[in-house]
Amino acid sequence: MDAVLRGFREKGLSYLIVGPFAIVLAFPFYVMVITAFKQQRDFYDLSHTPYWFHKGPTLSNARFLFNETQYTTWLRNTAIIGVVVVLITLVLAVPAGYALARLSGKLGQSVGVGIFLTYLVPPTLLFLPLFSVITQLDRQTSSLLHFHLRGSIWSLVLVYPSFTVPFATWLLMGFFKTIPRELEDAALIDGASRLGTLVRIVFPISVPGILTVVIFSFSLVVNEFVYAFTFISASAHRTLSTGVYTDLIRGDLPQWGAIMVASLIPSIPLALLYNTFLDRFIAGFTGGAFR
Amino acid sequence: MEALAAARPRGRRWTNVLERPSVLASVLISPAVVFILALVGGPLALAVYLSFTNAIGGSLHGKWIGLGNFRHEWTNPAFKDAVWHTFLFTVISQAVVLVVAGLLAHALLKKFPGKWLLRFLILLPWAAPLPLSLMGWTWIFDTTYSIINWTLQHLHLASTVSPPQWLAQPRLAMGSVIAVHAWRIIPFATVIFLAGLASIPKEVDDAAAIDGATGFRKFWSVSLPLQLPIATVALLFGIVFTATDMAVVYILTNGGPPPSNATEMVTTWAYKTGIESGSLGAGAAISLFLLPVLAVVAIGMLIFARRAEVT
Questions:
Q1: Is A124 on the interface with B (CB under 8 A)?
Q2: Residue ranges of the domains in chain A?
Q3: Distance from the A222 Cα atom to the nearest Cα atom in chain B, whole angstroms
Q4: Which of A243, A287, B69, B117 could form a disulfide with B285 if both were Cys (CB 3.0 to 4.6 A apart)?
């Protein structure tokens, strides 16, 4: 009886702590959702509560966003950059992560930690020299290939792996460490080559880990602001992270409803994926260091 | 092993070399290492070089001026303000994060109905792309239609004639960017804390119970020391993410409000100097002032990651 009471009290305490914080942390998203579907006259009307609809909900904000702005272009640009960067990241990070987890000795451990530490070097430290590098490369590409690197999404494709590769290598190293060595040993004894073992045994059972890396690397790309803001100035080449801000907020009259729709469309699926893969992410993230 | 390899037919020598773990390891690791050296190491070295020159935007070299940029910034009031603001921004937001994330992690450790939903809501600020969720905050802090002001006014806590200008009054602007950044980091710190708490073996709890340690005493002498290494790692990450962030401040206040520029940070000041004013060398010098922070954090990580390994 005592235990039951204590259980109740502990649960109640959990709700008391988690509940209010959950409301505060999610509050901006509630405001965004409700503003996204409000008529303009409604959210500029201060005589009624802003927490709910006064006039009926509307899709006019979404219609405006898709018809009157370059939103679909930004979505497409972000998707292209994301996919290519993720592919580059996997090609470089999967082999490196595996080798660091399995094949290398003490030296490998230090290399692993070194790669991880480069993840700490922020874009705000590197964007100035990289801006110059891109500008110089731009001169080459424009005279040789008639293609402007600076201002194109490919400048971001070139630069983004600088933070996704260290991050992904570290995560994958953690994942590969959790795969039992015996599986590989068995295949090796059966006469498979090491490379063959890697491709046929290790990679297939690492799919959940690799999927986690795909999602989190993609999310890092969508989150990136500094490079995208510095390297690209034309609306048609912008990504989501800068396009919504520069074109819709800084424009003459911010279309708040459309801005909220624009922000929510990528946020909702990403947040759901993030939540689904979070436990794996934590295992990999801390597993590299704490095992 | 080598004799065996040599005895095999010639055509398979290449694959045999790949059978040696050390060779295979270097083949697998080097592309990533070369790539990182080129895209992180190279630019970092270039930033150091540029900071000693008077290079202008878009060029890769300039006239060597030694410590000129550093000396100039060191005596520049705008730069000193930026360093002070960055310090406040980082320390206050991370203090808030530690307290809230600590509370949340302990509360989320227990099982209760609806936990999945609450955890999802708590995670949202970290899971949604920051530059996009900042659009929501810009609207929430709007000068005329702020939902916060509407609420405060209806509770008679704010004046209707001159309501608070969250991003346009120096102190409020600083408070707002600190709050938004804490909001952003809390979910991350919470999940890292949670992982640390979950990794404490059940036996420790049982042993503490047998020894009669409960409540605060147990927390202070058992849970806290065991949790400390991973909590420190979370804090160190939080420091890096905050001190080097530009998106929150740039999008919300752009370093303003003028003329005091109460939220100008090292990062936004480097951006304005290096890109907007085109003084690349000076901008590089400013951003390099972030390096000591990174160095301290990196050393801290190495120490605490090793200690966490023991637990």
A1: yes
A2: 1-58, 60-287
A3: 6
A4: B69
Answer yes or no: do A129 and B135 touch at CB < 8 A. Answer: no
Domain that holds residue B144: 76-310
CATH at residue B226: 1.10.3720.10
3-state secondary structure B64-93: ECCCHHHHHHHCCHHHHHHHHHHHHHHHHH
Which tens digits make up the pLDDT trace of B161-184? 889 999 999 999 999 999 999 999
Q: Does A98 lie at the interface with B, CB-CB under 8 angstroms?
A: yes
Strand-pair partners of B64: B53
User: Per-residue confidence at B1, pLDDT binned at 50, 70, 90?
Assistant: very low
What domain count does chain B have? 1
From A17, A229, A263, residue closest to B136, measured CB to CB: A263
Residue B246 pLDDT: 93
Residue B278 domain-assigned? yes
Q: What percent of chain A stands above pLDDT 70?
A: 96
Q: Is B214 exposed, middle or buried (0-12, 13-18, 19+ CB in 10 A)?
A: exposed
Find the helix or strand (DSSP H, E) in which A101 lies. helix A71-102
Helix (H, G, I), strand (E, B) or coil at B53: strand
Q: Which two tokens stand for residue A58?
A: 């509307």
Q: Are the C-beta atoms of B272 and B76 separated by less than 8 Å? A: no
Q: Which residue has the tokens 């390096």?
A: B291
A266 touches chain B (CB under 8 A): yes
Q: Look at residue B33 and tell me if it is in a domain.
A: no
What pLDDT digit, counting tens, does each position of B233-272 carry?
888 889 999 999 999 999 999 988 888 899 999 999 999 9
Tokens of B91: 């320390």
Question: pTM for this structure?
Answer: 0.89
ipTM: 0.90
Task: Tell which A residues from 126 to 165 touch B, by Cβ distance under 8 Å.
Answer: 126-133, 135-136, 159, 161-162, 165
What integer pLDDT is reported at residue B178 of this predicted model? 97
Q: Inter-chain contact B24–A99, Cβ cutoff 8 Å?
A: yes
Top-tier CATH class for A60-287: mainly alpha
Interface probe with A: pick from B30, B36, B264, most Cβ of A within 10 Å: B36
Residue A291 has a pLDDT of 40
Q: What angle do CA A217, B234, B207 make, to 5 degrees?
A: 125
Q: What is the pLDDT of residues B21-43, one digit of tens each?
A: 778 888 889 999 999 999 999 99
- Number of residues assigned to chain B: 311
Instruction: Evaluate whether A61 touches A257 at the Cβ level (below 8 Å).
Output: yes
- Which residues of chain B have a CB within 8 Å of the CB of A21? 100, 103-104, 122, 186
pLDDT at B310 over 70: no
Residue B34 lies in a domain: no
pLDDT digits (tens, 9 = 90+) for B77-127: 999 999 999 999 999 999 999 999 988 998 888 888 888 899 999 999 999
Q: Do A124 and B246 touch (CB under 8 A)?
A: yes
